[in-house]
Write a structure and sequence with these properties.
Blueprint: H1 15-18, E1 26-29, H2 37-40, E2 47-52, H3 56-65, E3 71-77, H4 82-91, E4 98-99, H5 102-107, E5 113-116, H6 123-132, E6 136-140, H7 147-160, E7 164-167, H8 174-184, E8 191-199, H9 222-226, H10 236-240, H11 251-267, E9 276-282, E10 295-302, E11 305-312, E12 317-325, E13 328-333, E14 336-341, H12 358-372, E15 385-388, H13 395-408, H14 416-435, E16 439-442, E17 447-449
Parallel strand pairs: 1-15, 2-3, 2-5, 3-4, 5-6, 6-7, 8-11
Antiparallel strand pairs: 8-12, 9-10, 9-16, 10-11, 12-13, 13-14, 14-15, 16-17
Helix pairs in contact: 6-7, 7-14, 11-14
Length: 450
């Protein structure tokens, strides 16, 4: 994360805290720097992109992208004709070229790059085709639908040298960047345990989306949408709610866990797959024919560090991380972060001394107080420090990083390797759930083992 993303003058000097010194209560504001095209554009060049997929996420990506300086959408693709209309409405271009065939965008010499938001089972093919056609690509999370897909995508990115940015926006979050800084400074000490959780409690949060009223085989290329999945008759609910089925999506793991995992990896400077994963969960509330769990908890090992992530579509819980260290707890949520220090030392005589005979107990307590009580007027002040910032789902800065990389050819913040490692955690979580055993990632065979 470049220092230009936020002003370091707005931050506390934390080196003393990292060394164990006390500090007073603080609540500070994290302020992002403005996106200034004049300072950041290489030679003033415009980036012309094509949009592949204008659904729930794609429409948001399209709307955010065209608000960025020097960025223009010149064509759009979707298999549902109603979204052709939507693309033209979002861009305010009544004659925007639209198509059902994304290959037409890849063959268009006027297009510098593409942004793709398609169902998970199409990610690999779109990314491989894009980079093979010489196009840079921003692809929504999770990067892959399977470990094998991820391996193929990494190989294609390396082979072609094209830019691939994966759309887990936590890595572009001002809040997560501050947490990363605090962790790297050793402020929370030796990491003991990492937790993360996120819960929803409504039909929309459980992917029970309403299909478009006019959806039909006449205005949707249903056969192409299904891809290589075993074919089934046209079903508008499958089209709208594909995340519910493993044939098309990756469930809670790929939709929500990937945010927690990619954010955790970024904040802890990790870029590897977990060593082991053990999941528990089930379809506990949304018994609507889905085959992916609506409650899913997974215990990972990253090296020897336990990381416990839990997702729930039956109980509302704000997205939260809790980094538990030997010097205190760092909690990160949607609108800020707070650090509560801990000394790791006894704050009173040990209660085990209650088992001593009275005389020995009195002697022990007298000695303890003489050695440990602070001098009058020198009592330590140990209070939390907190930062407030914008919503950490920073889509626009994440897109900006991608378009800037297209201009400058500099690395993005979430390349194919990072995206692959984050997606592997999700695939391992799903495999452990379905196999009902712990699983590991075997790098030599590039496969998940029980």
């Amino acid at each position: 994360m470049k220092s230009s993303i936020f002003s370091r003058r707005k931050f506390l000097g934390l080196s003393a805290a990292a060394a164990g010194a006390s500090f007073g209560a603080k609540s500070l504001l994290l302020t992002p720097e403005p996106l200034l095209a004049a300072e950041n554009m290489a030679g003033g060049d415009h980036v012309r992109f094509g949009m592949i997929g204008i659904g729930m996420q794609g429409s948001g990506l399209l709307g955010q992208s065209i608000e960025l300086p020097g960025v223009e959408c010149v064509a759009a693709c979707d298999l549902y004709d109603g979204r052709h209309t939507l693309a033209r409405e979002i861009t305010n271009k009544p004659t925007l070229p639209v198509t059902r065939r994304y290959q037409e965008l890849l063959a268009n010499k006027e297009i510098d790059c593409v942004v793709a938001a398609v169902p998970d089972h199409w990610h690999k093919q779109v990314v491989v085709d894009a980079v093979s056609a010489g196009k840079d690509i921003y692809c929504e999370k999770p990067m892959s639908h399977s470990p094998a897909d991820g391996v193929a995508m990494v190989e294609a990115a390396k082979r072609t040298g094209r830019i691939v940015q994966i759309g887990s926006q936590r890595v572009s979050s001002l809040i997560c960047a501050k947490a990363k800084e605090m962790i790297s400074q050793g402020m929370i000490g030796e990491m003991m345990l990492v937790e993360g959780w996120l819960g929803r409690n409504d039909p929309t949060g459980a992917w029970e989306y309403p299909p478009p009223f006019d959806l039909s085989p006449q205005n949707l290329d249903w056969d192409t949408w299904q891809g290589t999945v075993p074919k089934k008759p046209f079903d508008p609910y499958t089209f709208a709610r594909w995340r519910c089925w493993k044939e098309y999506g990756t469930g809670l793991a790929g939709d929500l866990l990937v945010h927690l995992v990619s954010g955790m990896m970024f904040m802890m400077s990790i870029n590897e797959a977990p060593r082991q994963a053990l999941s528990a969960g089930g379809i506990r509330r949304w018994k609507d024919g889905r085959n992916m769990p609506d409650v899913h908890g997974t215990l990972f090992y990253y090296g020897d560090l336990p990381v416990y992530m839990r997702l729930n579509q039956g109980t509302e819980m704000p997205e939260t991380y809790r980094f538990q260290g030997s010097k205190g707890i760092l909690e990160v949520n949607e609108f800020g972060l707070s650090f509560t220090p801990q000394s790791g030392k006894d704050t009173a005589p040990s209660y085990y001394a209650n088992s001593f005979p009275h005389a020995m107990h009195a002697e022990y307590e007298k000695k303890w107080h003489a050695e440990n009580d602070p001098k009058i007027g020198q009592e330590p002040m140990v209070e939390a420090v907190s930062y407030r910032g914008p919503d950490f789902d920073d889509m626009k800065p994440h897109l900006w990083n991608f378009f800037q990389a297209v201009r400058s050819r500099k690395p993005v913040v979430e390349d194919a390797v990072f995206g692959h490692h984050a997606a592997l955690a999700c695939h391992m979580a799903n495999e452990s759930y379905f196999r009902k055993v712990a699983v590991t990632w075997d790098e030599s065979s590039k496969s998940i083992k029980s």
